Amino acid sequence: MKERATDPLAGWSARRRASRRALAHPIATIRALVCEHASPRNLAAAAAVGTLVGALPLTGYHTVLVLLLAGRLRLNRLLALATNQIGIPPFVPFACIEVGHLVRHGRFLTEVSIHTIWDQAGERLIEWAIGSLTLGPLLAAVVGGVVWALAAFAARRGGAGVDDTVSGDRSGELRAGCRPGAGKVEEKATAAPVGQP
User: Cβ–Cβ contacts within 10 Å for residue 15, how many?
Assistant: First the structure.
């Protein structure tokens, strides 16, 4: 029977070793980030989470929130972070403000001036929040759907030519390669001929 480690810093030393390994083998680390949770469903969910958070009016906190959510939900952090960048101004915030203004006032914001942007910044922030709750899920569904379709297509084509091995990897953690769904065994049902058990 194994004894439990009583060292409170045991987890910390494992993280330090992982950090050193990441610095010593940056290519393997990048491949691990790209390949983590790389099934079409997980990639689509990561893209949807990144897009949804990117539409929210939380400027300055998007990156932290996306990394926390993707890590907690066990999604691909790199893809979630990449799709989060869809929310970079001016397009998505402007569209969210327009939708929020439409929801609040029943018409689009037609006057764009210093007065409507800076003097009424609080109003625009509320409209951005309302618009992001309306437009964000729609954008997330579209981006997630496109990513799912592309990932499923790549999975059918055999992983789009991604190499299955990582040179210099001694840890054994990256041996599965980067194909979507790598390492998962699919069961194929075989039908028995009629009249035979």
Answer: 10
CA atoms of 84 and 75, how far apart (whole Å): 13
Alpha carbon separation from 49 to 18, 46, 88, 123 (Å, rounded):
27, 5, 15, 26
Domain spans in the chain, listed from the N-terminal domain onward:
22-156
Write the CB contacts of 132 (distance below 8 Å, at least 6 apart in sequence).
55, 56, 57, 96, 100
d(CA 58, CA 135): 15
The tokens of 151 are what? 């990932």
Q: Encoding tokens for residue 85? A: 């960048």
In terms of pLDDT, which residue wins out, 134 or 8? 134
- The 10 Å Cβ neighbour count of residue 185 is 5
Alpha-carbon distance values, 42 to 37, 75, 185 (Å): 6, 6, 17
Contact yes or no for 168/29 (Cβ under 8 A): no
pTM over 0.85: no
DSSP 52-116: HHHHSS-TTTHHHHHHHHHHHTT--HHHHHHHHGGG-TTHHHHHHHHHHHHHHHSS-----SHII
Whether the predicted pLDDT of 88 surpasses 60: yes
Confidence of residue 122 (pLDDT cuts 50, 70, 90): confident
What angle separates helix 40-55 from helix 62-72, to the nearest 10 degrees? 150
